[in-house]
Design brief:
Elements (H helix, E strand, L loop, with lengths): L4 E5 L2 E5 L4 E5 L11 H13 L1 H9 L3 H27 L3 H6 L1 H24 L2
Antiparallel strand pairs: 1-2, 2-3
Amino acid sequence: MGEGREERFSSLQHYRDPEYYSQNPVIYFYTPHETMRYGRMRQRYLKKHRSVLYSSLILSEKLYPHLLEIDRAAHERMDAMQPRMMETAGVTEELKAHDPMRWVGLMNELKAQVDEIILHELICC
């Protein structure tokens, strides 16, 4: 900003030039590896379909805490749902020992079902 002097007040940067005095917000970014799969899915959904909410969360510095919370909730939900669905579908260690290919197929199917439920309940809400 030219040869002007930089002053910092709370979370705003104020630049003083001879011609004008302006404010530029400082936005703190988190590193992308902090948000996992469901957090990134939520971010893409917000950016594409709920752009006003996305901008609001960015400007209020609440986007990444929101994404981390969504990711945490999704993992908790998956950990709670998957064992019950495995029991209902009859996926057991015995099946794994006798017919591993069928067990893998059933596990992939259950994982896809859980992902779809999480997508509709937490990501695209």
